[in-house]
Amino acid sequence: MNRGTREGQGNRTSTVLGRRLGGELHKLRTAAGSTQQQAAQAITATATKIVKMESGWVPMRDPDIRVLCEFYGVEDAGVVDGLLRIARLDRERRKAKGWWQQLARVGNLGEYAAMEEVATHIRTWQLALVPGLLQTADYVRALGVTSDWTHPDEIEVLVESRLKRQARLWGDSPVEFHAVLWEAALRQQIGGPDVMRGQLGHLVEMAKLPHVHVQVLPFRVGAHHAAGGAFNVISFAEPGALDVGYAEGIAATVWAEGAEASREYTRTFERVARMSLAPQASLNLIEEISRGL
Q: How confident is the model at residue 18 (pLDDT cuts 50, 70, 90)?
């Protein structure tokens, strides 16, 4: 399922994993021919609670999930275990007190950063910009000037949040990061030649890390599968955990939460990666563009 920007309801929040889990329970209930009222009676609750559970508004308890699965006639232990794993990960993420909760005006960054913090693998396709995890502070500042974050103090908040996110590329368990950039992202002079030289040099240095992979899709390729827009695919270590697709639009954020939707993002990324230059050839092109600035 594809959903727009997350919403708040009182002190509860509809999360990506919560919605995914709720959607799976909704499918099981529908297949069993049960009503929300009947499901509520099975766990000694109100129909309103079932509505909230199926919409992802509230964290779910393991006993409730087990009872509902039994009531719906789910006999596959693997299905039940998969739902329990999603529920536990969702509860942990809701309880997390990350740095992003201390920053003003983070918007959708809060939910995305929470997922990024526990991800094991992130793939990103970018048409016009260097990926956030690989941006320099000066590059971020130049982006901030062109956005609605026009006050210097607000721009520094943006810089701070971006640099904190980049901590995922360091430490004992860094995230595996694979970025594919259209050549335009390297040639667009964000902040001018000096800023771009620094940015491209940083990109080359980061690409030397064993867990950071950078590829460039050159102009000469022509038409390709990912011309529709930039996106990220986030993967997790939990067995059976589905990938999540994330794409920011002008007016809304799209989360690809379902199995088929997230697979489509993954397939698109793999196609464009195959069309791109190999890593070393990509770095050669980045260095060539930098010398020409």
A: confident
